[in-house]
Amino acid sequence: MKKYSASLDTFAIVITLFVSLISIALPGSLFIGHDDPQAKPDVTVIIMSVILVVLFVSLFIYRVLYYTIDEQGIRIARMASPVLIPFSEIRAIAALSKDDMRYTMRTMGNGGFWGYTGKFTNEKIGAMTWFATRRDSYVLIRTADKNYILSPDEQEAFVEHVRTKL
User: What does the pLDDT read at residue 45?
Assistant: First the structure.
């Protein structure tokens, strides 16, 4: 079994830090700076705080930690719901450039907070499911019914390793 790192790119780091600060500051504002101890916090702030905390925790536990290649296939390590893409289902694998991903649209996903995950699409590839952490080392994995985008730090080594297993 070989483990491949999946570090965040600069944009994801900035977005993660920014959203994390807001996720801490907004709920914190409920308890700080109120002169009247009897005053009730604004319901909107409470609702937004709860939503931010739920999103923060959810995206944190579903973030990509690393990838492994073992005898069964490619494993996407996450705290919750790790993913296996069996070699028997892989039809093709390719390293992609930023140009290949131009005009990609997020249809239902996360665009930078703890990485890039969810559903995306573009004209060149079609619908894709992303389990990525960076935007400079895309790997496309095609199966009969899905296109996956991963982003191991060692893009070429990862692609070559998978090809030896197919």
Answer: 72
